[in-house]
Structure formats: C-alpha cells, structure tokens
Amino acid sequence: MSQVAAGRASPGPRHTPRGLAAASLAVLLVAYCLDVRFVVDPVLLYQAQQPAFFTGRAFLDQHLAYPGGPVEYAAAAVGQLYPEPWSGALALTAVALLLCAALHGILRHLTGGRWPLLAAVPAILLLALQQDYYHGAAPDLAVAVSAVAALAYVVGTAGLSPRLRLLVFAVGAVPVYCAVAGAWAAAVALVVASELARRRPALAGAVLIAGIVIPGVVAEGLYVLPASESFDRLLPLASRGGAGALGLGLYVWLPLSVAVAAAGQAWASRLRTLGAWLQPWAWVARLVVLGTLGAAAGLSGSADMRRTLRIGALAERGAWSGVLAEGRQLRSFAPATVLQIHRALAHSGQFLDNLFSYPLLSGEPILSIEAEHADRLDALSQVLLELGQVSQAEHLAHEELEIRGPGAAVLRRLVEVNLLKGRPQAARVFLEYLARSPRHSEWAARYAAQLNADPLGLSDPGLQQLRQVMPVVDHAGAVFPPELLLAELLARNPHNAMAFDYLVAHYLLSGQLDQVMGALARLSDFPEEYPSPRIPRHCQEAVLLFMTAGRLQLGKVPDVPLYGRQLDPAVVQRFAEFSAALARHRGDRDEARRALAPLFGNTFWYYYAFRTAAAGAPGAST
Amino acid sequence: MSRPALVAATLGALVLAALASAGCFSGDAAAGSGRSVAALPRLHPAYAGAVIPPNIAPLDFHVDEPGAGCRVTVSGASGSPIRVSCDGGSVRIPVAPWRRLLQANVGGAVRIGVDVRAADGTWTSFEPVVDTVAAEPVDRYLTYRLLRPLYSKYVSMGIYQRDLEGFHQATVLDNRSVDGACLNCHTFAGNRTRSMILHTRGPYGLTMLLHANGRTVSVRTQTRLNAAPAAYSSWHPSGELVAFSANKINMFYHSVGETRDVFDSASDVLVYDVGTNTVSTNPQLSRPDVLETWPCWSANGRYLYFARARQRPVEEFRQVRYDLARIAYDVPTRTWGTAETVLSAEQVGGSISQPRVSPDGRFLAFSLAAYGNFPIYHPESDVCMLDLGSGQWRRLSLNSDQADSWPSFSSNSRWLCFSSKRGNGLFARPHMSYVDEQGEVHAAFVLPQEDPLFYDSCLQTFNRPELTVEPVEVSPRELAAALRDSTHVQRAQADPSVSLEDLSAGAAEPYSAGARP
Asked: Nearest Cα to B105, choosing from B48, B44, B47, B51?
C-alpha cells in the first residue's frame, strides 16, 4: 500500500520550508486584505449588495426555511461590517483564510507535506470574484464552510473503514447541505478527490452518488423543493459575466489541487534530489507567478463600476457635488446612476444648465413608475418622493421591498411615505422592523422617540416641505407618464422648482420645443432659482433652435416671448459656431456626431441633432 | 351560546370586574404596598371586553404602562389562577394552564389583573381586563395567505395554517416550493379540508390546484366559455361543484389615499363540476354587459349568491357598484332558476362583494365598499351582515375606520373571522368576533400571537382567513408536486350544452338592479 493510501499519511517530503510556507500565506492574506480595503472598498460592496440583517426570530426563521439559508444569514451578518472598511476587509479576508486553511489542511493531511501555494489559489479566485461587486459574501462563505466540512471528514474519518466513512459522509451531508445548499458540491468534490487520492475509487464513487442524491432527498423532504433544484442556491456557476467562470474555476481547483498534491508527492521527492539550493528558487518562481496572478485579480475590477457605486453612496448622503464630479467621468453607466445624477442636478440647481453634460438614457422617459431592477426602483422611488409624488414613491418602494427584501433605505422611505399618507402606525411597523437592524437601530430608536412626541411628524421640516407639494386631488390610472406626474405636482404647487426642472427636462429630452417655449413664462414662479434676466442654458439653446427651425419652416424667425429675460450672447455665439460646424459635416451624420462631440456634446443642440449626449454610453442595466 | 346565557356571562364578568376593583379579590399587588387606579391598563393587543372562544390560544399581550416591572394574574370564577411575570412588558401566558382556565370558565369570564411596579418599588394595580368565554368553540384551524403589501411584482408569499389552540403555524404551500408562483384564494368545502382548491399563476401557468377525493391535481379552468381562469371560488356543500368567477382584472393606482385599486373590465360566474371536469354557466351568470363575480353557495346548496354590476368603462370606476344577487340551482338536474337581486347597491349605499353564507344558513356576511369589488384596498370598506330570514342588513359594530373585509364563518356559525387593517391602514391582520344566536356580533379581537409584539414589526399582510375544523390534509409536497407535474394537468372541458350564443343573448336588455336580467 502506498504512503498516500494509508489513511493518515506519514510526513512526506517538505515542499516548502516551514517558515516560508506560513510567511507566504500570511503575505498573500495581508495583500488580500489590503486589496479589499483599498481597491475593492467594502463600502462599495455594501452599496452594491445592500445586505440586510435583522435580529430576532422572524429573520432567522426565514433563513432556516430553505437550503443555504443559514449561510446567507451569516453572510448578511458579515455584510453589516462593510460600512466600516477595515472591519469589512478583515471579515472577507477571514472567509478567504477559512477556505485556504481548510484546503491546506486537507492537502497536508493527505500528503503530509505543506502546500501553501496550492491552497492560496482559491484566495486569488475569491479576490477576483470580489471585483464583481454584486457577487455577495454568501457563495464564498458557503464554499469555505463546505471546505471546512470536507476537512472534518478527511481528518475525522482517517482511521475508519470505508463503510463507516460513507456513513459519516451521509450523516454529515444533511446539515452541511442545509447550511450551504449548492456549495455542497465543493465538499463533495474535495471528498471524492481525497478518496481517489487514497486510491479508494469505490468509496469515491459511492461518496459522489451520495453527495448528489442526498441534497435531492433533503430538498424534497425538508424544503419541498424539486430535487432538480437542490443545487440552485449558492453555486456561483450560474452567475453573470466573469463571476460564473471564476466560480467554475474555484470549484474545479479544489479537487484539482488535491490531485496535484497527491501526484506531486513523488515528483517532489525527485525534486529534492536536484539539490537543496534549487528548491527555494523554484519556490520563489511559483510565488512570483502566484503574486502576479493575485495582482491581476486584485486590480481586475471596473473603474466605472466603482464610480457607479460611489455615485449611489454619495447620492444617499445627498453629496450632490460629489455625484456630479463622479458622473462626469463615467464611460458606461446603469439607468439607476442616471437617475441619481438627475437628482444631483436638480438639487444643485443645474438641471436645465448641465443636463446634457452627463450620461442620458436614450428613448427612456425621465420618470416612470415601471421598472424591473431594484436599484432603479430605489432611485425612482426616492426621486418621486422628493418631487412630492408620495403615492407613486410608495408604489415603487413596495416593488423594491418585494424584489430586494427589507433594506434600510426602502424601510426609511416607507416610514416617511406612511407618515405623509397619514398612517403613523404603519410607519411604526416599518420603523420597528428597522429597529432590529444592528446598523440602523439607533436611528430607528431616535425616530421613534420623535414620533412619540409628534406622531405624524408634523414638525419634521423635510416632511413639512413634502406636504406642501404632494398632490391633494386624486388622479387614478394604470400608467403615469412623466408629463402627467409633473403637471399634477405643479398644479398642486406651482412653486415646486424640482417638478418644474424635471418637466422642462422632460420636454427637452422628448424634443418638445414648443413646450419648452411655453415653460419660459413660468420661470418667474421661481425667482430664487431663476432670477431675471437669466434663462437656463438649455432653455436658451432650445429657444435658438426653435427660432432657427421656425425660420427654416416658415421663412421668418418666429416671435418667441422671453418675458423680459435675455439670451446670453455667448450662447448665441456658440449656436452660430454649432450651426457652422454642422453645416461643414452635412451629409455624414456619424462624422458630424464624432466631430461635434468635443465642443458641443454638452448642448441641447447636439442632443437634438443626434439624440444622445456626448458623455458616456449606456452600460449594462444593473 | 344563547343570548340570555351570554347576557348572564357578561353580567357575571362585570360583577367580577366590580368586585375586583373594590378589592374583593386578593390580588398580589393589592395585598402589598401600592395603590389602585380606576382605569384599565394600556395593553396591546387590546383584548378588553372581547368574547373569546373556549379553545383559543393564550391572549398574550404587552403592558404599555410605564414602570420597572409588572405582574399579571389571569383568573376566573373557577379554576386555578395563572400568575405571570412580565418580560420587558411582554406577557406570555402558558398554554396548558390557560386552556384549563378557559375550560373551567366556559360561559363565564376570565379577568386579567395587571400590577405595575414603579422604579421606587411601589405597585400600582389597574382595573382588571375582563373577557367573556363563549360556550361554543371556534374551528381549530385558520388558513390565510401571508404576503407583503404587493403591487405588481411578487417574490415571496405562501398559504399558512394556524392552530388556534396554540401558536403553531404550518405551511400549506410556500411559493418557494413552486418556483415563486403566485398563490391565492384557498377555498375549502364546508369548513373541512377534504375538498380544497387554491389558485396559482406563474411559471406553471394559470391553474387551479384541486384536492378532492384523496387526490390532488392541477386543473386549467379556462375553456371556450371563459377566457380568464378561475378566481374567486366557492364549494357547493355537496363537494361536487365549485362555483368560480372568471375576471379580467386590471390594477391601477391613485395619487391620493390608498394607492392601489382594482377594476374588473369583464367577469362572469361559472361552475366547475369536479366529477366530470366540466365548466358550465348560464346566460344569467355570464352576461356580456354585466360583471358577475364573488360567487357563494347557500348553506343548503340551492342558491348561488354572487355580486353583479353593470359593466362600465374604466374611467367610470367609481360608479361600478355591485348588487348582491342570487340564482336558484338544482344539483341533481343541473338546472338553473332565475337570477334575482337580493340587496342592491342603491339600498346599501355602496358596493357589495365577498358574500359568505353562515353554515346554519341564517346570515350572509359581505364586504361593503364605496365602489368596486376589491374591498381590501378600500379603507372605508366594512363587514356587513344580511339576515337571510328577514332580509334586513346592517353594518356591523366590529368595523374600524380602515379596511375590514374577507369575512368567513366557523362551522358552527358562531365565529366570524375577517381581515382588518385597523390600527395601521396598510397591513391586514386576522380578527375574530363572536356571533350570538340572534346574529349580534360582539367586539372583535386580533388573532393572538406568542410574541405579543409580533404585529408591531410584521411586514406581512394576512389575507382571506378561512376557518376549518381540521388541518389541511394534503401536504405541501403533494401540492407542489401536483403543480409541478406538467404531464398530468387536467384541462377542464366546456359544457357542450352551453353555447356562446346563449350567453350573448343575455345582453338583450340593459342591466338594472332589482330587475330580473
């Protein structure tokens, strides 16, 4: 019987000096932690994943009702550390450490040698997975728990007969599967590889069959799920984009590393004969390769993704100048980001001056009560609330709540919505739920104390302001086009500057020049935002375009009342330059679009001519 | 419980309360240093003055009075008193002693004495909360649909069953088991679960899960007679037939008040024959110019009650008000009588929906809203009762200023269960109320929970509470398997004797309430 097949292996050849092995793993994990802290940034992970965690029985019970729930529960708890960057980085590093240590333990137990570099590869794959901000901690934690379970099996059953080993595996499979769901595949792969390494193919086959069958039985029997869906959760293979490939790589690597280590036993023995002086250099070479791969993984994230998430985080804090600064640099973007940029423009009084300096969604209404993705629902709901469309904000908030679950932002919004709608007790239900969130309990307690003194939030200045703009005359319909939503708000309160800005922006985006001309009369309703004689830049651009279009159609310049306001000579001059540049490229639309973008890409004229803003291009909807 | 008995029990309870407030009972607190106040303690949920079933779970509650601690004594004229200390204000009464106490005081009263300890150690005793224990038990199981307040998207929902004698909630079907399908409108035959249906839509299409005669199948109820699948349903007492409505439902939204609303642009009532797998109807139930919906069989199965209104364009949604109508039916010959209006929308000043006949056949409970047929979205909706003997109807005293709807009766007709959004206006909670022999309905109380603060942070709404005397006999696994099994879907057949021309002929005269269409 070979050394490997003899159960607990006797110490074999040393592939790596003891101190060097520990040091190399430590260096890698420190690098991992630093990358997560400074490159990935756990704050952005929090922004992307919005992990919600609540104390109490109900939240736990929800997670015990499906396979993988316990690990998702634990991952949600880990996610609460993300807003503190170092805590988040350390927590994620701990997950990586758990996986690497478990794998190393298995390799060491099987071969008697140290395999720090083989065991470190999963950390590199996890690091690459962290670059996809929507990946979530649960699949990683699940695979780590699965690897720990495999280690427990390998070590704990070392002296047992094959039958007993199979029995232990089958018994252990149930709780582990319940905890990790599809990630159980990692444990099965590791155990099968271990048994093959020990030259027990029959047991390996039995373990493989049991590892596939048991989850199906548990899914059917315990969770009333079809057996065919037993591996659906927490197996990252079906993830979008590169995450799926990386997940597959991780699941392939785990058993492969066992095979490599087992095969490496004999090879390492021969290597030892090459001379002691060669070994450290070979090891250094491997470390360099690993380090290069690690660096590539650690820096593989998308800058635009990070910027998009930063915009979301800044918008939550109302840091509008930050949103606009980040927004200017976006090259690809998600619809929700555009909505946040619009909010920033509106709140900073630049909507009608700089709308076309930022990314736009072509062919989409500026506001809608229809959306599918939680991020977009969240942004739309928030902007509708700020505008005063409380009922529509409520509608989208509930859609978000259903799709994403009870996150802090949506719960807070529903507290406000229900206070505004005169349902203080419903507001308290959301508040009580939020009070169970460790991160938000303090805010909830403070708010609840305020409500004890002022049950309807009448003294809350933010709510007071919304009460002055929210509709009081009911309008009913299945569809609420932006024009209707905004006109309803202006009918309620003609001084709702945000609604005015959005309405005129809607006219601009939909090319309704005549409506923009009509809106000029209402500028006087906003003396603070638009003191005479100022006309917002994009409105001036629309006026010039309207006059030119009229001249071309009617043969004379139409009379456009400016209500005592004036066009900026610089804008007039720029329009002349735009017209001349456009004329130079007549007949080649694509060339004109490229050539005019640097100088005029931020103008309404450019948008009107090419139906796009020069800044950015739509990215994948997230 | 007869009316005199109930009066006697209530009087007894009042006497108990008076004696207690006069210090005739040696309550723990009263015996020690402290003071008594002539007021009821602030508790939530509030159960004061309720008539409760003798088999209900403990009425756990939270003491909202300020203090450093509290203790509670639950007692009655008979049986051992129960002493409970508070856990941060929460009072959890042990199940077994509670059950014994209620059994010992059937037809009498239980009183709940609350003493609150101040920070300086002095005790304050409040007037006891007194509840009457009815003689008649409530059906042991309550089945409801649990979901968040939904709009157009749904992810998580399920149908659950609560054992009312304790706090255990079992899953009838969770939509995680069926690829997130929408589950709705669970319906039982005669407060028993041997015959039940529930409807689903989602990845497995629009189907009715039918459990009858010991087998469970998925039934596609759409036929040439009904483009829409079965929605609101009612089992015939024989268990042979299911009357159902087929509705073209449109959701729309308001900018002021309750945001959600529902408009039916078309609807008909049809009958599914379980034995022959056929769907049939009658021109009087499927008029193209009339919206017929919310069918409900009478207790003896000789009449089918339903709501109907003249069809209108969606812009006139506020004018769509449903009358209560009925039509005679003879099961052996499968023949229909003539439809007649029982209670018109004009008479009741609103729109009638969700009719439910009490098993003893004496009363018909219904929901009354300002318009439409989806009262759960109408804060003004109330539960009303029609005396089928006298024809008199009344709005029940149990109603609140928020939506009260989905009435249903226990098998002994003594308990009325309904969903109410009272207190918060958004989340419906199951409530129960005692109906005495004269049809008087007593103060409602919310379904007790083990954690008295449960409702305070519960983001789910309880819809369609249905009482049954036995647990649902079909397992979640069987229901899920039947829905997932696409090879054994049962496609209902249209009754060959009914033609679409016959149904169109019903539109010859315009509909008007009170006139026979």
From this structure: B51
Specify burial of residue A473 (Cβ count, 10 A radius: 0-12, 13-18, 19+). Answer: exposed
Is the Cβ of B83 closer than 8 Å to some Cβ of chain A?
no
Q: How far is CA B397 from CA A82, B394, B426, in A?
A: 52, 9, 21
* Whether B255 and A471 lie within 8 Å, measured CB to CB: yes
CB atoms within 10 A of CB A217: 15
Selecting from B153, B156, B476 the residue whose C-beta is nearest the C-beta of A399 gives: B153
For residues B133 and B105, is the Cβ–Cβ distance under 8 A? Answer: yes
Nearest to B255 among A226, A403, A488 (CB): A488
Q: What angle do CA A293, A51, A447 make, to 5 degrees?
A: 145
**H or E stretch including A487?**
helix A482-492
Over the range A38-60, which residues count as b (16 or more CB within 10 Å of their CB) and which as e? ebbbbbbbbbbbbbbbbeeebbe
Q: Which of A423, A471, A475 sits opposite B426 (nearest CB)?
A: A423
> Tokens standing for A174?
């149930």
Model pTM score: 0.91
Distance between CA atoms of residues B158 and B413, nearest Å: 27
Report residue A313 CA to chain centroid gap: 11
Q: Cβ contact (<8 Å) for B484 and A475?
A: no
CB B114 within 8 A of CB B135: no
Cis peptide before A536 (omega within 30 of 0): no
Q: What is the pLDDT of residues A85-120, one digit of tens each?
A: 999 999 999 999 999 999 999 999 988 877 778 888
Q: ipTM of this predicted complex?
A: 0.92
Candidates A222, A224, A225: best to mutate against B (most CBs of B within 10 A) is A224
Q: Which secondary structure element, helix H or strand E, spans residue A83, and what is its range?
A: none
A467 touches chain B (CB under 8 A): no
Q: What is the pLDDT of residues B51-93, one digit of tens each?
A: 999 999 999 999 999 999 999 999 999 999 999 998 789 999 9
Chain A residues in contact with B259 by the CB 8 A cut-off are 391-392, 394-395
Percent of chain A having pLDDT more than 70? 89
Nearest CA in chain B to A384: B255
Residue count of chain B, please give it: 517
Q: Output the pLDDT for position A23.
A: 76
A1 touches chain B (CB under 8 A): no
Q: Is A21 exposed, middle or buried (0-12, 13-18, 19+ CB in 10 A)?
A: buried
CA distance B92 to B32: 23
Chain A: residue nearest B178 by CA?
A225
HEC-encoded secondary structure of A543-596: HHHHHHHHHHHHCCCCCCCCCCCCCCHHHHHHHHHHHHHHHHCCCCHHHHHHHH
Q: What are phi and psi of B269, to 5 degrees?
A: -110, 135
- Whether chain B has a CB inside 8 Å of the CB on A426: the answer is yes
> Is A476 in Cβ contact with B457 (below 8 Å)?
no
Note whether A452 contacts B: Cβ–Cβ < 8 A.
no
Whole-angstrom distance, CA of residue B465 vs CA of residue B144? 5
Task: Measure in Å the smallest separation between the Cα of B478 and chain A Cα atoms.
Answer: 9
